[in-house]
Amino acid sequence: MDSVIASAWKYLITHFSDFQLACIGSFLLHESVFFLSGLPFIYLERAGWLSKYKIQTKNNTAEAQEKCISRLLLYHFCVNLPVMLASYPVFSFMGMRSSLPLPSWKVVSTQIFFYFIIEDFIFYWGHRVLHTKWLYKHVHSVHHEYATPFGLNSEYAHPAEILFLGFATIVGPAITGPHLITLWLWMVVRVLETVEAHCGYHFPWSISNFLPLYGGADFHDYHHRLLYTKSGNYSSTFVYMDWIFGTDKGYRKLKAVKSIEDEIDAKQM
């Protein structure tokens, strides 16, 4: 398997420059993973499939979904792509490389674990600041236009927020100057995680059912349903920051009540 990956990577670095791979390649990878993982949830919602796993009964209109997609394309080409182009010199200066040999899985997994820790910490505080009155009204309210998340709206946000919270995702790699394949893997994992957190469905196979402290769709959906002053659940991937600072108390109480109700229903059956 390693030899296959190395051969494929050798093809890429012999046919494309570092700049092309790090900027254009990263952009194309992001767009592919984001839309391929997010679009199915639009069709699930429209068709009513797997509705028993849907967290909210309310559905988004086709017009609202189409607005989201058109704005996303605009923001991705006018904000995300320029940021990737502008950040290339920084990553290069910090030591990012694309040459062979590829890093070991131990190095890759250690770096990505570090990125999660950094991203969770910065995102929590940045997200919490965005829920202050002025910033919510003028910036973060754009993301909360969708009280019923559906996957793709995970990246639907004000351009200022894209830059502000996007910093949390890139600061870890910027510090360590990783191999480009590590950066790509981190990007894929983060995109899949944020799409899943906004998908609007809680399945029996959802990661949050098996991985401790992982937030997932049920945790983040609660955040979208409530008024900005009372929402809580500000964490990104793992929820330990909300637990430490007590900003998930409302969610935990709701879960406890629901658990009791489920037990009563089970006894009555």
Automatic annotation (TrEMBL):
Superkingdom in the source lineage? Eukaryota
UniProt main location, coarse: membrane
Q: Tell me where in this chain the Fatty acid hydroxylase domain is found.
A: 113-247
Q: Which GO terms describe its cellular component?
A: membrane
The UniProt keyword set, sorted, is: Membrane, Monooxygenase, Oxidoreductase, Transmembrane, Transmembrane helix
Which GO MF terms are attached to this record?
Answer: iron ion binding; monooxygenase activity
Q: Name one Pfam family in it.
A: FA_hydroxylase
Enumerate the subcellular locations listed in this protein's record, separating them with semicolons. Membrane
Q: Does the keyword Mitochondrion apply?
A: no
User: Which positions, given as ranges, span the membrane?
Assistant: 19-44, 72-92, 112-130, 162-187
Show the InterPro entries listed in the entry.
Answer: Fatty_acid_hydroxylase, Sterol_Desaturase_Related
| GO BP, one annotated term | lipid biosynthetic process
Q: Which family does the UniProt entry place this protein in? A: Belongs to the sterol desaturase family.
Q: What is this protein called?
A: Methylsterol monooxygenase 2-2
